[in-house]
Amino acid sequence: MKIQDKLLNDLAPRKFDKLGVIWISILVLIIIAGIIAYIDQIIKGQVVTNMRDYALWGIYISNFVFFVATSFVGSVIVAVLRLTHNEWRTPLVRVAEIITLASIVMAGITITLDMARPDRLLNLFIYARIQSPITWDVIIIPTTIAISFLLLYFPLLPDLAILKDYFKDKKPRLSRWYGRFSLNWKGSDTQKAIQTKSIKIIAIMIVPIGLMLQTIDAWLFSTTYRIGWDSTNMGAYFIAGAVVAGVAALIVVLYVVRRTRKLEEYITDLHFDKLGKLLALACLIYLYFNMNEYIVPTYTPTKGEELHLTTLLTGSYSYLFWLVTIGGLVLPVILLLFKKGRKPLPMFFIGLVVVIGSWWKRYIIITPTLLHPFLPIQGVPESWHHYFPSLHEWLITVATLAMALLIITILVRYLPVVPIQRTADEQEKLNNDIKH
Amino acid sequence: MKEQDKNAKNSRRNFLKKGIALGAFSATAVAIASFQKDGVEETGEKVKLLSPDGEVVEIDKAYVKPAQDLHLPLDKDKIREGIPNRKFVMVIDLARCKNALKCVDACNKHHHITGKNAWLKVYKMQESKDTAPYWMPSTCQHCDQPACVTVCPVDATFKRRDGLVLIDNERCVGCRFCMAACPYSARVFNWEQPDQGEITMNMDMTQHGSTPEHAGLPSIKGTVDKCDFCPHAIEKGELPHCVSACPNGVFYFGDKYEDTVTNGDETLRLGKLLEDKAGYRLMEGLNTQPSVFYLPPKDRSDDFKDGLKDYNEFQSVEKPEES
Fold this sequence. Notes:
Chain A is mainly alpha-helical. Chain A has one domain (about 1-130, about 220-425). Chain A is built from 17 helices and no strands. Chain A has helices spanning about 1-10, 20-45, 60-70, 75-85, 90-115, 125, 135-155, 155-165, 170-180, 190-220, 235-260, 270-295, 305-315, 320-335, 345-370, 390-415, 420-435. In chain A, helix 4 packs across helix 11 (about 235-260) and helix 11 (about 235-260) packs antiparallel against helix 15. By secondary structure, chain B is of the alpha+beta class. In chain B, a hairpin with a 4-residue loop joins strand 10 (about 250-255) and strand 11 (about 260). In chain B, the strands form 5 sheets. Chain B has a 5-stranded mixed β-sheet with strand order 12-11-10-3-13. At the A-B interface, helix 6 and helix 7 of A face strand 4, helix 4, helix 5 and strand 8 of B.
């Protein structure tokens, strides 16, 4: 039982320190600003954005795609590493599950921010037409939210029971809440059998569901005639990009959690080393799809494609394009090849750059295409020929990012970020192995 | 030649007659229903009307009374179905277009477009510097395989049997997927509350809701609009506003099943016109199958440059006069 006492001391949720309180306050302030901007958008209409008839989608959509992408980390870290028996994943899974849940919830909220008539949200169910990719989204996003929640919740049950006991005298009210959520977990064999089976089913389910989610997201674009979207490469391209964004987001959150909660003993250099290799692999695969998407078409471009590709590769979007491609993909791969590059601190910065790169990458996928329609852009004000987000769009978008971080922060605050029971079991097993 | 002219005239007359009869339909349906024989003095003047069974009947003018409400809310299913046994098409003769922009003015005026985004545009086209420039009016193409309809999540935009692609602005959720899907950039969005002033007020008073039949008027904030082929005009047996407004006879409108199109001055056989003048459709390769045909800009009567005097990079729609 000694192991568990130490584990509990290290891993049980703790109150925010001063820095934590400041962090939360900033996030709340950003969110309030975003809500005010959104209310203004509802009242005045989307005229407050810089979207117009040609740039008809903007950062609301690219931000949505970003959230969908980061939500893929649950499928990768939890499910794929589980199915491939990578045991080192244990201390990472909960953070990955938390990111997944926060991202997919925010994806659902973000997409409705883009709807000009949120008051007619129910029409999506009442008049749903199955051939529209948006209907597929309406189906897959709530499904993913449910599965991601269960993926986080089921493995938590034993830990919640432990925390109930742990806080019994110290904080009776908190203890009662843990008790309620632990669903009367006693750790009996029957309970364990049901739990193991449930987790197994969900861990397998999250893989096809995650793949479907990413693919549907890609099909939102590739089901149109638009140059730059109308590509059979899109599904795989989005999946590869999602691994990059998800793993990078995990590295960043993991580093912060490890520092603030002093979990160096649990989340070790080894974990960062492994994640670094995983991220490098993901970036390489993504680069491969990028070549399919941007380099190969330069050999046989139609007139429209040529214009699109020139704008990206050498034209007005080339700075952003190359910054995102080299800074956000090529350079990280090179740095991650070195052992020193895979140490926690360098990894934190690499992860951060890759996450920011991933966000802008989605911007680059969406905006330039819309500004290159088949017929020339004519008969609209000059400002409609370009797009850069308005203040309203920035406030709302930054608020959604802050909301995601707030969800992550709150979950990290109240849940054990490293599974207690599982770590205990594994350590016991390890000790037994040594004794024998 | 004379024979042909006669034919053409006849078919044009038929086309208009059918249209007028159809337009009268909604009015007479109400009028006939409240038909009272007592206390009416016959004038002896007969009026042709279309009966609900589709028969053309004659009654004395005295029995015809104006319907109480011409804007009866039509059955939504009927609006979605369209006018039976018709297939509306348009032909745009690029050889005649001089960028007079009367079509744009008429369209804006009759659809009470107040935003910066007109439904009808005249593009200044030049595919490459080695090819000739020309003026190209562009409407909604009313495709037979409309990409916009396929992607709409709520069936707000729909394809009718008579060829029209329309929008139900009371259902549209404002996702703008249809705009992303349309390769012709035909769709516009109400980014803010449309300032249609009196129209909105009048329609509120007659409890005339926004309907796809009546050009989607009044426009609704946060929903998509576009060229509607003027079903409100078709119903009255009139030609779409752009067709009748054009001083150069660029636009022809008609019925594919009747193989007839007219620009108001001359009525022609659609098939023959397309064959003689090598008609084509925009981006045929995309397989959207538009209902709008173009005649190539050959043997132009005017110099392309003459149109430049009316050309502006952008000119805002003239606001309706306040009263």
